[in-house]
Each structure stands twice: as structure tokens, then as C-alpha cells.
């Protein structure tokens, strides 16, 4: 069963499962297919994280996050007047050295059973023969129009200056050639030779700083998953350079200090959720960064004892205030999460991203893919918000070769019998962590079906700005009134996060695509 934001990419994974591939083979097939069918976020020009938990108990966390180019400097996005520029989100200076190809190949090599050549065939076929553009892709292109139009991707996605129309067959021969080279020669084909040269040529056209040396040096890294326990189940999630796993486990540990949670949707529940999220985000934004550059206090933040001290600081009937930011928004999508299981119970949870919709807008001419704007995930000016309104500190300042801190939270919940129960994660910047945790709470504490757990109205609090976001219509008026009298600044939004999940149910697996978005859950 595969749940992703692209039905065609889920079908590509199922094709591999049907050929006898395991969940990792299928996840890599889906990942490359998303680079073709979901170019606004699926990618080979970005990066991501993959958490793997095999039915035999082996587990791994693949960190294929982008890194800052060697020529990056701490203040590269600050102008002569000390003001932040938009160069961390638009154009070639925003691009981090891509990790997607290295990461997917490494995951396949360690846990897969099929060759890169074989698992990439569905993606190559989709690029070669094309597929019919749907309204979701057409609308995404319309939203990204001004970003895309200065670059070569315009000729593919804005034919005659207009967003590619629904129903058009999108054939991507340049991308097919790139994918074929990777399938035949392995990831080195991306990091050396003509694909790398084409990427560097795009840098030269647009004042970017990634060199062939940056690409040659890129390494994807195996890490041990963050492991937490929650009411008897075990959570496997992503360690730094993503904050996702540490912060999700920190939140769950605080929730676990209460023997039961108040009813879903009640004032008491919303209060607990908001106060837990706020506390964990303060830690996220001030303490975490790339472990190669800073010492992340992972053990402390994920300890049950620390959770109890944070719980004790929550006032029963009053909102706390986020302190002024001191050292120790809303984004256009795009990131995308996909969840994969096979019949043996192997599970793969992957989140990958270009950061913003269509990344930096840059498109590698001749090689046919968009580049990320992941550099904006750094604290470009510690203490100033990034495009997600995240105010972050020194631990996440820019340095050459450093990974920018992520919120991506690909996670796998394993039950008391050691079997995968829930594979889940999301897109949506900082809302990734809070949405993933809420889906886990909905399943474990509120005993919801997966359909209800994914659909239930979501909340979000990231400490700075000091406000509680809720989905419009998601709180009743009496609850809103009570929360306001407790001191909450409430902020209604249309929707929070974009998750895709698979859950074990009686008789097999159930896949659910984000009800607020598009995609496909496909199994057989
Ligand atoms: O790694 C991160 O946390 C961000 N680059 C994720 C961005 C994102 O989720 C955007 N869209 N949905």
C-alpha cells in the first residue's frame, strides 16, 4: 500500500511491489516517479529524509538533506543595510546542494532487493511517454508562475506563457534522459559529468554559487532513527538534521505524562495541545541544528523526565506567553510525504522537498528538473523569521557544508507486538511536526479510524509568533470563547499541513491521502 500526493507515483510503486519488490524498492520507485509527476515538490533537485523499519526489526534513517555550498557565508542573505533579502527563496543563490539522488540510491542499496535500473523504469516511462496534467498540477504552475517564468522551466510548464492546461500530455524528454543516465550509471551520473555541469551552468546564468566541487563532495548520511515510546507503542522518526523526530517525541512524552487526554475538540484538549506544541517549538528553534556543526541535546529533549518538567510548567486555566526570542507565516507548498508498506510488514516513511513550490524557480536546462530553495531553512539572520515565520537561532546559522534544520517528520509507529501500525508524515513547514503528532494522538488516544484521524481539524502553535492556529470551522464557538478568555490569540487558517498515511487495520492495510489535498493511495 502506498499513499502519496500523486496517484501515478503511487501506482509506480505498486508496479514494483507486484514485481516482487519490497517497501524500499517501491518507495524509491515512487520517489523518482514523483520527480516526474509532481514537479512542484517531488524532485531530484532537492532533498529529504527516509525512515525505514523492516519487519525483521532492522531500522535506518537516511538523511539526504541539502547542504550549504562551500562558498556560502553566514550573512549571504543580508544586504548592506542589515536587511534580509529574498535571495534565500528565489533564484540560484537559494539553492542547497541536492541530496535526493544520493539518498534514494543509498536506501535502495542497503534495504532494497531490486536494482536502481529496475525501480526507475516506471519514472522513466512517465517522463518519456508523458502523462495527462491534472488540475492540481496546472493550478500549482499558475501559483508558481512568476517564480518559474524567468527560467528554462517556463518552456515546459508555461507553454505560450500560460500554465500548462489540465488534460495536456506532459512529456519531459530532458528529464527522461537524466533519469536514464542515473538508472544506468548510478548516483555518480548526477554528481559528476554532464548533469552536474548543466546544474553548474544554471548557477552561472543566475549568480548561483554551487560548483562541481560541491556536487562531487555531497554525501547522504545513514543515521539511527530517533526512537521514542508512547503509551506502549514505539515511534521511529527522523533525527537531526531534521528537528522532526526529536520534537515529535518530546511532544508525545509530554502528552504521555497525562494518563488520558481530555476529549477531542474540548477547551481542555486544545489548551494542552497548544501548550505542549509551544514548549517543544521553543526548544526546536533555539537548540537544534546540523549535528556535524552543533551539539544537539537529543537525549535531554527526548527524555521522559524533561517532559515532566515541561508538563509541570503548564498552567491549568491560562495560556502561557512565549518569551521574547532569545538565544541560548504561511508558505506556498511544497514538500511531499509518502508512506509505503509491503505485505511482509516492511515500512518506509519519506518526506522530500524543494522547500517552496517549485523551489527556487531555477530549472536545469538540458537535464529537465527544478532546483530547491532550501537555504531559506537556515536562520539567515538569527532572530528574524524565515518564510514560515520560524524564528531560529545560532545553532541553525549558515555555514559552508552545513545542513539546514528541517521540520520534516517521516515516522513509523510500531505496536506492542513489534509490527508496523502507522506510517505517517506530512508537508507544510513547521506544521509538519504538529500535524504528524496530532494524527498519532487521534489514532492512539482518541481511537479514531485513519480516515477520521487524518480529517479531524488540526491545530498549530510554533511559539513564535505567539498565536494558536486552528482550521476554520474546527473549533466550536464556546471553545473559541473559552480559549480567548484564557489568553489565547487565535488565528484561523484554511488548512494545516498535507499528510499521507498508511495504517494496519483488520484484514490488511488502509492508505489515506490527505483529505485537504490531492493524490492517491494505491494497494493490491
Ligand atoms: O525541511 C523543512 O522543514 C521545510 N523545507 C519543509 C517545507 C515544506 O513543508 C513546504 N511545504 N509544504
Overview in brief:
Helices cover 34% and strands 17% of the residues. The protein has 524 residues and is an alpha+beta fold. Residues 331, 333-335, 353, 355, 374, 377, 406-408, 427-429, 432 line the site of 6-diazenyl-5-OXO-L-norleucine.
Task: Please characterize this protein's 3D structure.
Helix 19 links the parallel strand 17 and strand 18 (490-493). This protein is of the alpha+beta class and 524 residues long. The protein is 34% helix and 17% strand. The chain has a 7-stranded antiparallel β-sheet with strand order 6-3-2-10-9-1-22, covered by helices on one side. The N and C termini lie close together (7 Å). The model has no long low-confidence stretch (mean pLDDT 96). Helix 1 runs antiparallel to helix 2, helix 2 (23-37) packs antiparallel against helix 3 and helix 13 (244-256) packs parallel to helix 17. 6-diazenyl-5-OXO-L-norleucine binds at residues 331, 333-335, 353, 355, 374, 377, 406-408, 427-429, 432.
Amino acid at each position: 500500500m502506498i499513499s502519496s500526493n500523486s496517484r501515478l507515483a503511487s501506482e509506480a510503486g505498486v508496479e514494483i511491489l507486484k514485481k516482487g519488490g519490497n517497501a524500499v524498492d517501491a518507495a524509491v520507485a515512487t520517489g523518482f516517479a514523483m520527480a516526474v509527476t509532481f514537479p512542484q515538490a517531488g524532485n531530484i533537485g532537492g532533498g529529504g529524509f527516509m525512515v525505514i523499519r523492516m519487519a525483521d526489526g532492522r531500522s535506518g534513517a537516511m538523511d539526504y538533506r541539502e547542504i550549504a555550498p562551500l562558498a556560502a557565508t553566514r550573512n549571504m542573505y543580508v544586504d548592506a543595510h542589515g536587511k534580509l533579502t529574498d535571495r534565500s527563496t528565489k533564484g540560484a543563490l537559494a539553492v542547497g546542494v541536492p541530496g535526493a539522488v544520493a539518498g534514494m540510491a543509498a536506501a535502495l542499496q542497503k534495504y532494497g532487493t531490486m536494482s536502481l535500473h529496475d525501480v526507475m523504469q516506471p519514472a522513466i516511462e512517465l517522463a518519456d511517454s508523458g502523462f495527462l496534467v491534472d488540475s492540481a498540477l496546472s493550478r500549482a504552475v499558475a501559483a508558481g508562475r512568476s517564480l518559474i517564468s524567468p527560467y528554462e522551466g517556463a518552456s515546459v510548464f508555461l507553454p505560450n506563457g500560460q500554465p500548462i492546461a489540465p488534460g495536456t500530455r506532459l512529456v519531459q524528454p530532458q528529464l527522461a534522459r537524466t533519469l536514464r543516465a542515473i538508472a544506468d550509471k548510478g548516483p555518480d551520473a548526477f554528481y559528476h559529468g554532464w548533469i552536474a555541469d548543466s546544474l553548474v551552468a544554471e548557477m552561472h546564468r543566475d549568480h548561483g554559487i554551487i560548483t562541481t566541487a560541491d556536487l562531487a563532495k555531497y554525501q547522504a548520511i545513514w543515521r539511527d532513527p530517533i526512537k521514542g515510546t508512547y503509551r506502549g507503542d514505539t515511534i521511529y522518526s527522523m533525527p537531526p538534521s531534521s528537528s522532526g523526530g526529536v520534537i515529535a517525541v518530546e511532544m508525545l512524552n509530554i502528552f504521555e505524562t497525562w494518563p488520558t487526554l481530555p476529549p477531542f475538540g474540548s477547551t481542555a484538549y486544545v489548551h494542552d495541545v497548544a501548550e505542549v506544541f509551544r514548549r517543544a517549538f521553543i526548544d526546536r528553534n533555539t537548540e537544534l541544528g546540523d549535528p556535524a556543526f552543533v551539539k544537539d541535546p537529543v537525549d535531554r529533549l527526548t527524555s521522559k523526565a524533561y517532559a515532566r518538567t515541561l508538563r509541570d510548567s503548564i498552567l491549568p486555566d491560562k495560556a502561557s506567553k512565549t518569551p521574547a526570542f532569545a538565544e541560548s507565516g504561511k508558505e506556498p507548498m511544497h514538500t511531499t510525504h509518502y508512506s509505503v508498506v509491503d505485505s511482509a510488514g516492511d515500512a518506509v516513511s519519506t518526506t522530500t522537498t524543494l522547500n517552496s513550490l517549485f523551489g527556487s524557480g531555477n530549472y536545469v536546462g538540458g537535464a529537465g528538473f527544478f532546483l530547491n530553495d532550501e537555504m531559506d531553512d537556515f536562520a539567515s539572520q538569527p532572530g528574524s523569521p524565515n518564510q514560515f515565520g520560524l524564528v531560529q537561532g545560532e545553532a541553525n546559522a549558515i555555514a559552508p557544508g552545513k545542513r539546514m534544520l528541517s521540520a520534516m517528520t517521516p515516522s513509523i509507529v510500531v505496536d506492542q507486538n513489534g509490527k508496523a501500525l502507522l506510517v505517517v508524515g506530512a508537508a507544510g513547514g513547521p506544521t509538519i511536526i504538529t500535524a504528524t503528532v496530532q494524527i498519532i494522538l487521534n489514532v492512539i488516544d482518541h481511537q479514531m479510524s485513519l480516515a477520521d484521524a487524518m480529517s479531524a481539524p488540526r491545530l498549530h502553535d510554533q511559539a513564535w509568533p505567539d498565536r494558536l492556529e486552528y482550521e476554520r470551522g474546527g473549533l466550536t464557538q464556546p471553545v473559541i470563547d473559552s480559549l480567548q478568555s484564557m489568553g489565547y490569540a487565535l488565528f484561523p487558517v484554511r488548512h494545516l499541513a498535507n499528510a499521507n498515511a498508511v495504517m494496519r487495520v483488520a484484514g490488511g492495510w488502509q492508505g489515506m491521502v490527505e483529505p485537504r489535498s490531492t493524490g492517491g493511495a494505491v494497494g493490491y
